[in-house]
């Protein structure tokens, strides 16, 4: 028992903690906190995070009254999302059904996130996917300061629990945070 | 009326056929490549700078193969407005990025507002000196090294063709260097950027009152002696040692004398005698290499 405990401590110390910068959506925790679910607006919170990530202000400001439109609060389904995206001129892929897995893989592989059904009647933000380990990274707008890691099987259960629906912004992904490397 | 109908129909038919024709020349790629000569001789090639440039500037096979062009702007900035206008109409710039059609665009093109706090954290690792700033970075697939690498950073002088040429040339140079063994290692920027903001430290009054002129005179200076840690450690680690004992004695003498001075009690020895006593103690074992026994003055303080 004692050895197992020590081994667990050593393992925990060795594991590389996932930083937001390692995922397709690389928003710092400070920004993610802006999208803490205030009143059952999980779909708008999830899309809002993508709006910041892909620099789409009309999507980023969904939760508040701004020049981009009046705030959108409360629960949503695909038709409501389609309506307010149309009104605010936000280009999205609003995907339901069996192909959501492929869409989520496509989005994360190309540096985008996705607002996804995750958990019972809940929407969260898919932050990234590690092809090597099969790990999916998800930010829950009820606990936005952390990023949860799911195995393929666990993620499958999570996504199916809410019904297969994902929203992906039809915008270019953000660049990696630029740095100077002396190549010249 | 009937005679006018047929020519109109003919014109419409020709126009619809023309628009339906497939793109026969990718003029965007021609513009991106600029002045270049590639020698294709049927042999195995692909290792020259020209080959690398053509490979990098060809139409991307996938979203993941697209380069990134970011434009950072400010409000009411004439250059920023002109650049955005030029980028939506000039063929040289459109060959690099199509702001209106991201799917047809050769690169991922995004315009950022420097004042937007939801985006400003992205630029914390680079130095932006003026607006608009144009940044070019390699694709996310890391085929051309780290996608965080700044391949081009510049501003806009009002000549779209020049800007497009500068960007293309930077990409050509970059991929040419990669081909010649460039290693993508982290290095400092080529200059020392000014600090973003001064670090605010709590105000601490200066020990000498901030006075530089006139300088402190000797009787205004008292010596504070640091605690003889080294001597004590020597005793603990190596057992009895005369130099260490002497070091501790000297520290005790300084401490007692300072305490009596502070309490304004009469001193047992005047300064001359005290200093001679310290000298004698310091010379006692005659080994100047022994460090622990001599307490070092910590700082000069005004009393």
Notes on the protein architecture:
The complex is a heterodimer of chains A (184) and B (303). Chain A is α+β, with helices and mostly antiparallel strands and 184 residues long. Chain A is 35% helix and 16% strand. Chain A has helices at 2-14, 29-32, 42-53, 57-60, 78-88, 100-109, 152-162, and strands spanning 92-96, 114-117, 123-130, 135-139, 148-150, 165-169. In chain A, a hairpin with a 5-residue loop joins strand 2 (114-117) and strand 3 (123-130). Chain A starts with a helix and ends in a 15-residue tail after the last strand. In chain A, 42% of the residues are buried. Chain B has 303 residues and is α+β, with helices and mostly antiparallel strands. Chain B folds into two domains: 48-179, Glutaredoxin (3-Layer(aba) Sandwich), CATH 3.40.30; 218-302, no CATH class. Chain B has nine helices and six strands; from the N terminus they run H-H-H-E-H-H-E-E-E-H-E-H-H-H-E. Chain B has helices at residues 2-20, 27-33, 49-57, 78-89, 91-94, 160-179, 229-238, 242-262, 271-283; strands at residues 67-73, 107-113, 133-137, 152-154, 221-225, 297-302. Chain B starts with a helix and ends with a strand. The A-B interface holds A 28, 31, 34, 52, 54-55, 57, 60, 109-111, 170-184 and B 62-64, 66, 68, 70, 102, 105, 108-110, 112, 116, 118-119, 121-126, 135, 137, 140, 145-151, 173-174, 177-178, 182, 184-190.
